[in-house]
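ok so dumb question maybe but i'm new to this and my supervisor (M.) told me to 'just get the structure for NERD domain-containing protein' and walked off. so i did the thing. is this what she meant?? sequence i used:
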Amino acid sequence: MDIDIVLQNQTGRLWIIAAFLLAAVFLTGLGRHRKKRYARSEYRRETGNKRKKVEQDAGKNGEYETSIALEKIRGRRCFVFNAYIPRADGRGSVEIDIIMIHERGIVVIENKNYSGEISGRADQAYWQQRLAGKRIGFYSPVYQNISHVRHVRSFLKNHMDGMSSPPIFSAVIFNDRIQKLKIRRKWRSEAVICVSKKAPKKIWKKLKRQEPVFSEAEMEELYRLLKSRAEVFRWVKRRHRKKVIKYKKMLD
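this is what came out, is it supposed to look like this??
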């Protein structure tokens, strides 16, 4: 009887060791897959950010995860991340998370890396985040992106001689970590509002209604122009951050 107990204990230990080994192999494989996916991503090529830096920064990680989803959109396209576009009134600049230049138009994307439940209405200036039993109000990203689209349109008009006004679409994308996204549309909003995993289908639904408007050369020209606004001097970024902090304090 004692021998049976000993054998059972040894068998139990072996199963535990095997489970640990399998878990270690799985996690190692998962880590390698993530490393390869990041190395091949357009986000890494465009930003040059190190993978560890992205993983430790919630905002950057959210933009990366969204860009991975957007790479599934068919057709010729390229991305510009964190572009500082001059305001139409000349007072400073606005930071745009992601700009997708597609052969059928330009998509200006406001990316939100929130958690919890998000609710609101497309015609309201403020939405709500419900997290840990608390409700937190925040400025509507739809309204925020309306101004971004306006500034992008003004910037391109001033710098793209000979090119007609291109179609520009607005998209507000929440990362998949949110538990629930409930935005009512009593007011007809042209903006795409969705989570990352649904973004390719939702955005393509908008783009496919539009015939291709950019040649390959025009896309390259647009890319160079917008990319130049992602490589601005540090003082431009600092000034923008100070304005954002000041604005948030006014809302509190």
